[in-house]
Amino acid sequence: xxxxxxxxxxxxxxxxxxFMCKSEVKATFVGVIEEVIDDRGAFxxxxxxxxNAISGIVYVNIAKNxxxxxxxxxxxxxxYDGTVQPTAPMTITTxxxxxxx
Length: 101
Description:
By secondary structure, the chain is an alpha+beta fold. The protein has a single domain, classed as CATH 2.40.50.140. 20% of the residues lie in helices and 47% in strands. It is built from 1 helix and 5 strands; from the N terminus they run H-E-E-E-E-E. The protein has a 5-stranded mixed beta barrel. A hairpin with a 4-residue loop joins strand 4 (75-85) and strand 5 (90-99). It starts with a helix and ends with a strand. The mean pLDDT is 87.
């Protein structure tokens, strides 16, 4: 009985941690891929952003969408957690990336 109780508590803690760690898209932008790096990342030039929150060149993790093959010149819509790292080039936590027609 004691082992079952400990197991139940452990499972509940694990599920609550997973729920709390789930990230959601808080901001998006549209841009054009300038350079692709090892099919995992890309430098994207921002052309449209919500509230002009971001501009210039941003490093994007294109591996977040393994079903798509991205190439230089593609127009993409990127969703991220709203935080921009002040690096050169800027870096974000990419949550979604998709081709735009």
